[in-house]
TrEMBL record:
One of its GO terms (molecular function) is DNA-binding transcription factor activity. Gene3D superfamilies: Winged helix-like DNA-binding domain superfamily/Winged helix DNA-binding domain. This is MarR family transcriptional regulator. Residues 2-101 form the HTH marR-type domain. It comes from the Bacteria. GO terms for biological process: response to stress. Residues 113-130 have a biased composition (Pro residues). SMART domains: HTH_MARR. InterPro entries: HTH_MarR-typ (IPR000835), MarR/SlyA-like (IPR039422), WH-like_DNA-bd_sf (IPR036388), WH_DNA-bd_sf (IPR036390). Residues 108-130 are annotated as: Disordered.
Amino acid sequence: MNAAGGPPVTSTQVQLFAVLDPEGTTVAALARHMGVTRQTAHQAVHGLVSAGLLEQIPDPASARQRLIRRTPAGERAHHQAERLLQDLEGQLAARIGHDAVNALRATLEAPWGPAPTPAPPPTSAPTPTT
């Protein structure tokens, strides 16, 4: 994306874009889909909001929640990324064959089960006093 003139994004932000529902998704749902903590998802969202690629809107189903969705600039970046991935896939197919690429896609798109639950942060043991 950087080489194509797109905004710089982290791997977490790329993953977020991949699981984002076009109508909007809560941060909690994004975290679950990504298998990360809410804090990690929130940080990724904040960076993409600051970059003008995402926006927060009120959730019509809940007055307390907000939905995260792409802005028009975010839609353009998403479509640009899709085109780049299609180009890369075409290059890969030219090297290993369309059948191998299709098998790879089927393997990667197979259900992997639920996302792993993030481990809670380690707690420090109390220091004995003498």
